[in-house]
TrEMBL record:
Domain spans labelled Aminotransferase class I/classII large: 37-391
The family this protein is said to belong to: Belongs to the class-II pyridoxal-phosphate-dependent aminotransferase family. MalY/PatB cystathionine beta-lyase subfamily.
InterPro entries: Aminotransferase_I/II_large (IPR004839), C-S_lyase_PatB-like (IPR027619), Class-II_PLP-Dep_Aminotrans (IPR051798), PyrdxlP-dep_Trfase (IPR015424), PyrdxlP-dep_Trfase_major (IPR015421), PyrdxlP-dep_Trfase_small (IPR015422)
Pfam families linked to this entry: Aminotran_1_2 (PF00155)
Superkingdom field: Bacteria
Cofactors required: pyridoxal 5'-phosphate
Name by which UniProt lists this protein: cysteine-S-conjugate beta-lyase
NCBIfam families cross-referenced by the UniProt entry: C_S_lyase_PatB (TIGR04350)
Keywords, sorted A to Z: Aminotransferase, Lyase, Pyridoxal phosphate, Transferase
GO molecular function, a single term: pyridoxal phosphate binding
SUPFAM superfamilies membership: PLP-dependent transferases
EC primary class: lyase
This enzyme's EC code(s): 4.4.1.13
Length: 401
């Protein structure tokens, strides 16, 4: 039982991550050698923060007292998850709808396998989280790109005519939706989601809805979990959630997939059995339960930091000509339109940032060609670190003149 009250939390300390097992810090040194030691990666979507002390305490208690035999998800685990979804998202979930897995992407791949056959087609909306492309390719599917449309106000929207015509392809059996959308930051409105759902229902396209960023939305925006739109929508969807983005626990591999339609749920579970079963590691479960039960104040405090950091980027892009902020409605990622900087190729932009400004963002081209000359910035870091990164970019840009 976690009794201690841990707030206020430390979101200020700049952690030394070199020499840790952090994949993104390792990648910089791997690619740039020793010369990359001072390059700051604000790339891969995990945070430069320690996890909530409430979670750490639960893990220590578990490590000290538990026996690590085969596990099942206990009633307390489900209660924590169901309460979170009810309380944060007004989403009432029956435990029989839930399957656990060691990550959202293993679950997305499994769901794809359960509703498609090799040679089928799947809709994604680029620029989008690039492992969706890998999932389609690994499962022998052809991608139909319902490319997002950026208007002159810097707002991304959906081309519904294009979506309708792609969904009408008889070989199109699935769509992968990202809500909130990584990297463009859109929180899809209930109206948009209903229109997507109506098209998928009409065309018998199964919807795989990745809601891993659902706990991050900024004032004025509210994430709608897809099934809450109504029973006919719940009937076609797989919803992928996880405490791992929300509470910076990605290394603990834990996610919960919600499949209200019992027929789809059976197909999903059979596809999972076919690869030897999907489940969650003991510590993943302990951390997930503790986070949902006890760490909400940590998340609330984190949101204040993210809003402050977003404000910094807003000021920076207002000051620096050639870079435009695509205002995020959700996620802890900022999508920067750098087309105005005048680089000849996306590679030149990327080299400039890494070699001159000493910062490593995720280059937009990773998310599809429509992401060329964009950069994705991870806002989940101490404000001082972000200030330092932005100052470095300004200096490097001034030197380039
Ligand atoms: C949209 C989206 N889906 C899935 C993932 C990865 O989830 P997992 O680590 O649980 O496979 C990420 C991580 O950045 C993500 O942004």
């Amino acid at each position: 039982m976690i009794l201690a009250q841990h707030a206020p939390y430390d979101f200020d300390t700049i952690l030394e991550r070199h020499g840790s097992s952090s994949a993104k810090w390792h990648e910089v040194v791997e690619q740039m050698g020793e010369d990359g030691k001072d390059v700051v990666p604000l790339s891969v979507a995990d945070m430069e923060f320690k996890p909530a002390p409430e979670v750490v305490e639960a893990l220590i208690q578990s490590a000290t007292h538990d026996v690590f035999g085969y596990d099942y998800a206990t009633e307390d685990y489900f209660t924590a998850f169901l309460n979170w979804m009810e309380h944060r998202h007004n989403f009432h979930i029956d435990p029989s709808w839930v399957s656990l897995s060691d990550g959202v992407m293993p679950a997305v791949n499994t769901a794809l396998r359960s509703v498609t056959r090799p040679g089928d087609k799947v809709i994604i909306q680029r620029p989008v989280y690039y492992p969706f492309t890998f999932a389609a390719e690994h499962n022998g599917l052809t991608i139909l790109d319902n490319e997002l449309v950026l208007d002159e106000n810097g707002h991304y929207g959906i081309d519904f005519d294009d979506l309708e015509s792609k969904a009408a392809d008889p070989r199109c059996t699935a769509m992968i939706l990202c809500n909130p959308h990584n990297p463009v930051g859109r929180v899809w409105t209930p109206e948009e989601l209903r229109r997507i759902g109506d098209i998928c229902i009409k065309r018998r396209v199964r919807l795989l809805c990745d809601e891993i960023h659902a706990d991050f939305s900024y004032p004025g925006h509210k994430v709608t979990m897809f099934s809450t739109l109504g029973a006919e929508y719940a009937n076609i969807v797989f919803e992928f959630t996880a405490p791992t983005k929300t509470f910076n626990l990605a290394g603990l591999l834990c996610s919960n997939t919600i499949i209200p339609n019992p027929h789809l749920k059976r197909r999903y579970d059979a596809a999972a059995d076919n690869i030897g079963g999907l489940t969650v590691n003991h510590f993943g479960m302990v951390a997930c339960q503790a986070a949902y039960d006890h760490a909400e104040p940590w998340l609330d405090a984190l949101m204040e930091v993210l809003e402050r950091n977003l404000g910094l980027i807003r000021d920076f892009t207002a000051r620096v000509s050639g870079i435009r902020l695509i205002e995020p409605e959700g996620t802890y990622l900022a999508w920067l339109d750098c087309r105005g900087l005048g680089f000849d190729t996306p590679e030149e932009l990327c080299d400039f940032l890494r070699n001159e400004a000493r910062v490593w963002f995720d280059e937009g081209s990773m998310f599809g060609e429509s992401g060329n000359f964009f950069e994705r910035v991870n806002l989940a870091c101490p404000t001082r670190l972000l200030e330092q990164v932005l100052a470095n970019i300004e200096t490097a840009l001034a030197d380039r003149q």
